Amino acid sequence: MSSNTQSTPKTRLLVADDNPFILDLVQVMLNKLNHPEAVFATNGLEAVTAWKTQPFDMILMDCQMPEMDGYEATRSIRKLESETTTNHPAIIVAMTGDATQRNRVLCREVGMDLLLPKPFTISDFKILIESEPTTLRSAEK
């Protein structure tokens, strides 16, 4: 009897940020963590379009982006999730330099589950993408 000892991360990840440095940083962190490549979007409209083509377990969403900001993209994704039974709700994580209580409340109101303050470390990132969804959903409530 043989067993598969190789661990494969299960998180299907979408990263939406208009800053090429942040996108590169996330890719480097994913590589260091041996995580499958994520799907990248450079604005909220691209994030919503990507969500329509495949389900994601987690979406890292910058709040301030051109075309459609992260708040509106989150509202759109949550609306689409409510209209379909084929996709499970994604964990949407606000990636922002604004970690004030006021912004945390706004993020919750639009449907984001967590807030990952910028700048973040690889340790913060690892905990986030390797945590069980149920743990994450209750983390900031």
CATH superfamily: Response regulator
Radius of gyration: 15 Å
Helix content: 40-55%
The total domain count is 1
Strand order of the largest sheet: 2-1-3-4-5
CATH class: Alpha Beta
Which oligomeric form is depicted? single chain
Distance between the termini: 44 Å
Mean pLDDT: 86
Binned strand content: 15-25%
- Spell the H/E element sequence: EHEHEHEHEHH
Largest sheet features: 5 strands, parallel
Tally of contiguous helical segments: 6
Tell me the overall shape.
Answer: globular
- Structural classification: alpha/beta
Protein architecture, described:
- The protein is of the alpha/beta class and 141 residues long.
- It has a single domain (13-139), classed as Rossmann fold (3-Layer(aba) Sandwich).
- It contains 6 helices and 5 strands, in the order βαβαβαβαβαα.
- A 5-stranded parallel sheet has the order 2-1-3-4-5, with helices on both faces.
- Helix 4 (101-110) links the parallel strand 4 and strand 5.
- It is globular and about 35 Å long.
- Residues 1-9 have low confidence and may be disordered.
Write the layout of secondary structure elements.
Blueprint: E1 13-16, H1 20-32, E2 39-41, H2 44-53, E3 58-62, H3 70-82, E4 91-96, H4 101-110, E5 114-117, H5 122-130, H6 133-139
Parallel strand pairs: 1-2, 1-3, 3-4, 4-5
Brief synopsis:
The chain has helices spanning 20-32, 44-53, 70-82, 101-110, 122-130, 133-139, and strands at 13-16, 39-41, 58-62, 91-96, 114-117. The chain is α/β, with parallel strands linked by helices and 141 residues long. The protein is globular.
